[in-house]
Amino acid sequence: MNLIERAKSILLQPQDTWATIDAENTDVATLFTRYAMILAAIPAVCGFIGMSLIGFGGFGVTIRVPLVSGLMNMVVSYVLSLVGIFMLGLIIDALAPTFGGQKNSIQALKVAVYASTAALLGGIFSLLPSLAMLGLLAALYSIYLLYTGLPVLMRSAPEKSVGYTVVVIIAAIVMGVVIGAVSALFMPRSAALFGGAGAPAITMNTPGGKVSVDMAGLEAAGKKMEEAARKMEAAQKSQDPAAIAAATGDAAKAAAGLLGGGQAIAAQALKAALPEKLAGLPRTGFDVQDGAALGLPTSQASAQYGNNDKQLRLEIVDIGGLGQMAAMAMGMAQGEKEDQTSAEKTWQEGGRTLHTRYEKDGSHAEFKTILKNGLVVSIEGDKIGVKELQGLMSQVDLNGLESLQRKGKS
To answer: Does the pLDDT at position 197 exceed 50?
Structure first.
């Protein structure tokens, strides 16, 4: 397979090319090393050049991401884009029977890899941040590639192709949000993915331990996605805005369940872990949010502490069953970086991932930890040392938070 010719043909002649791809014998390693890993480097490298070397801005002011940060973001985005493609293949495979198709992990991965061609090639527009929106337009063509590839490779019913495509896209959007959140928290080091057709679970081996993706849970969620797709099609035909909004919400909720398979820990349980006082400072306010109201498996509780001289903020966040993705972040590389104005360090201790960051002028500091169950606990404050923040974390019942269980499979 010639990479350039394959990319050209899938973009210009998708129908004929899908038929050719359908008949090809291949494996996961070949799909990734000879195609996906090469194309995925385009948006990662171009994004680094555009943001760190060329820069963006206006009115005579140019802003550039520091080189070290830019390089780290490049590596993170590259790795997570490959993880995203693999996960997309799992989703396509799990949903196939509910749309009249046939489960086949390799065929599903073919669809995920080759349908991503337009989106990955569109990453070249990241060279100039001002043209980055054109990359989004290129990504839209990947939706069409997905639409044309599903019935050919997954043998889905032609009349269900639209619904199949819609629910896969919704799932991909939710997955993208989660991956973005994970990459924003920390930089994952590696995640080896293993599995095959008919496998009861996909196992991710990370330095923090093994994480299993329940395939039975994916199939169950897939049925909910099919039902949501029917509602969306009916709503579109009725042209009722309220029905369309409700159906879209149901689809988003089903997609979240597809990826996570479990609910978030109740926001009130997180609130109970917020102490009345922190560092002797009274609690001056709190904010509790439960994403279940929006159909999303997330919850968070935060509180402010302080007086006229010192202000602190404590936050506890859970992303529910999607904590599988957060667990991947626990496999991050340990390290530290420092410049003239700030310093930060990341390390692992007792199965938890810890992260500190502070401004050298003492204006701000933060301490963050990812617990074994995926909860993220962070403390930040102004005019306080990072060592003091680490000590304050002992006033939070981390063991109690780590023992909290989510409802449903994760």
So the answer is: no
Q: Provide the pLDDT for residue 71.
A: 67
Residue 68 near residue 178, CB atoms below 8 Å: no
CA 154 vs CA 102, 222, 403: distances in Å: 6, 15, 41
Region label for 153, one of left (φ > 0), alpha (ψ between -120 and 50) or beta (otherwise): alpha
Helix (H) or strand (E) holding 201: strand 201-206
Sequence-ordered list of residues with C-beta below 8 angstroms from that of 30, at least 6 positions apart, any chain: none
Q: Are 193 and 120 in contact (CB under 8 A)?
A: no
**Rounded distance between C-alpha atoms, residue 85 and residue 81, angstroms:** 6
CB neighbourhood size of 238 (10 A): 12
Q: State the greatest distance between any 2 C-alpha atoms of the chain, in Å, as a whole number.
A: 71
Mean pLDDT within 98-113 = 91
Q: Which of 3, 195, 9, 223 is nearest to 106 (CA)?
A: 195
Tens-place pLDDT, residues 249-283: 565 555 555 444 456 788 889 999 999 999 889 99
The whole-angstrom separation of Cα 316 and Cα 376 is: 6
Residues 6+ apart with CB under 8 A from 177: none
Which residues are registered as beta bridge partners of 317? 300, 376
Range list of β-strands (E), 298-363: 299-306, 311-318, 335-338, 342-349, 352-359
Asked if residues 353 and 332 have their Cβ atoms less than 8 Å apart, the reply is yes
